[in-house]
Every structure is written in structure tokens, then in C-alpha cells.
Amino acid sequence: MSLPDACVMTDSADNGYCCGMNSAAENPSIDQSMLEVIESRLGRSPRGLRAVAVIGSDSLPCVIRVASLVEGKPFPTLFWLIDPVLNLRIDREEAGGLINRFQRLVDESRELQGAMKSDHQRHIQLRESYLAGGERELLESRGQWDALSRRGIGGIADFSRIRCLHTWYAAHLVEPNTVGRLLDAHWAESELQ
To answer: Per residue in 27-45, is it b (16+ CB within 10 Å) or e — as a string?
Structure first.
């Protein structure tokens, strides 16, 4: 599997990525200079910023984690890819029709469909694990819990569809998933040509 040079990670249980989900990395103090980097990479002030989830080899944030309840509303996109090199690379892949090519592969494979469903279910559990005290209860009391409990990576409701490679890849850098693996394989194959 080929991890882009822009986000070479140094720690994980089994995948070689620093998922930023352990001890000191989980809630790093995001000082003003780090916030400025995040804002610059995101192109705006982040809403609901909770943590830097993945740090690149350049010691700059690749992926941020945001709250699932922002300004009193459900916010199902947990991870945001903010690395400009990866974003541009994925922009070009999407513009070249890669989502449609991957979607055809998924449509033709029950195995890929099942793997994507599992990815979404694991992501829902992960997102729920990050809810701050009282957030789930608040969402349930407002009848908004389904916006998180039934939506997977990037807020996708149909677990057999690929909507955005950026959201899939951000989640992949934290916890490997099917679409991220497809993208890694595509990049590895492209490098051989």
C-alpha cells in the first residue's frame, strides 16, 4: 500500500499510519500558530475543531477532527483532509472521473459493497465515541440522532455510494477503509506506469 509522501505517518497499531488517536496526540493543544496553519489549509476558520487527527512528515496537520454537534446542529463529517498536496491530487482524480470508475467497481462487487458497509458502521461507532458529554442526549431529545447514527463517512446515507474521495481519504488516514485502499492502489499503479 502506498501512503502519499505528504502524510507519512509514524505510529499505529497495524497500518503504519499515525492516526493521532493515542494519548498526547489525541487532544493536542492547538495553539494560535497551529490554528493559523489549519485556517490557511482549510481556507476558513474551522467549525467545531476538536483535534489534529493526522500530522504529516512535515509536522503540519493533514487531517483534523471536528465535533459532531456544531452550532447546535448535527455535523456528520468527522474528519477533514486539509493537506493541500493531497487535496489537489484528489481534486484531479475526481475531475478525471475516478469516483465513477470506483463506483462501477463497487456496483459490480458484493465484496466491496460489504466492505464499504462495514467501513461506514465502524466510522459511525468511532464518531459516537468522540461525542462530548450530553451531545448524544441532546441530539436524541431534538430528534436529530439519526443524522449521525445512520450516516457514515462524510455523512453518506447510502452505504454503497462513493460521494467524495476527500472524505473517504481523510477517514482512511485515521482508520484504513475500502475506498482509501482503492485510491492507494490506484496511485501505486499510476506510479508504475
So the answer is: eeebeeeeeebbeebbeee
Strands 73-74 and 69-70: antiparallel
- Read off φ and ψ for residue 11, nearest 5 degrees: -150, 135
Q: Where are the beta strands (DSSP E) in 56-124?
A: 61-66, 69-70, 73-74, 79-81
Per DSSP, the three-state class of 68 is coil
pLDDT digits 0-9 by tens, 64-102? 999 999 988 999 999 999 999 999 999 999 999 999 999
Residue boundaries of the structural domains of the chain: 5-192
Query: CA dist 25 to 53, 73, 87, Å?
Result: 8, 27, 23
Region of residue 59 (phi > 0: left; psi between -120 and 50: alpha; otherwise: beta): left
181's grid cell: 485502499
- Give the amino acid at 138: L
Q: What pLDDT is stored for residue 9 in this prediction?
A: 40
